[in-house]
UniProtKB/TrEMBL annotation:
One of its GO terms (molecular function) is serine-type endopeptidase activity. Keywords: Hydrolase. Residues 1-98 form the Acylamino-acid-releasing enzyme N-terminal domain. This is Acylamino-acid-releasing enzyme N-terminal domain-containing protein. Belongs to the peptidase S9C family. The keyword Hydrolase applies. Pfam families: APEH_N. PANTHER family: ACYLAMINOACYL-PEPTIDASE, SERINE PEPTIDASE S9 FAMILY MEMBER. It comes from the Eukaryota.
């Protein structure tokens, strides 16, 4: 597999629309209810997301300096998004530098 970390990329979230049904098979709602939410619209690169052990934060690496400058293997940076406890996601979530 070949890839280039100099290309813009983003993190997206999609709400899972599955729930328990009375049968053994999970019930799925219509796909027209699905909306992909860009969690990182203000940063040109976001990759390798991980949740903190307590689920309060989503942390990820960014190759923003490589994307913005075109220099291969430029310095990566670490960022954090506060993950909402009510599970209501907003595209305007603040991205913190760590």
């Amino acid at each position: 597999m070949k890839y280039c970390s100099n290309r813009p990329c983003a993190l997206y979230a999609v709400k899972a629309l599955y729930h328990e049904s009375k049968s053994d098979e999970p019930e799925r709602h219509s796909t027209e209810e699905l909306h992909a939410l860009n969690l990182t619209p203000t940063i040109s690169s976001a990759l390798f997301p991980r949740f903190s052990p307590n689920g309060e934060f989503l942390v990820f690496l960014s190759a923003k300096s490589a994307v913005d400058s075109g220099v291969h293997n430029a310095t990566n940076s670490l960022h954090r998004i506060d993950w909402p406890t009510d599970r209501k996601l907003y595209q305007s979530a603040k991205i913190y530098d760590i």
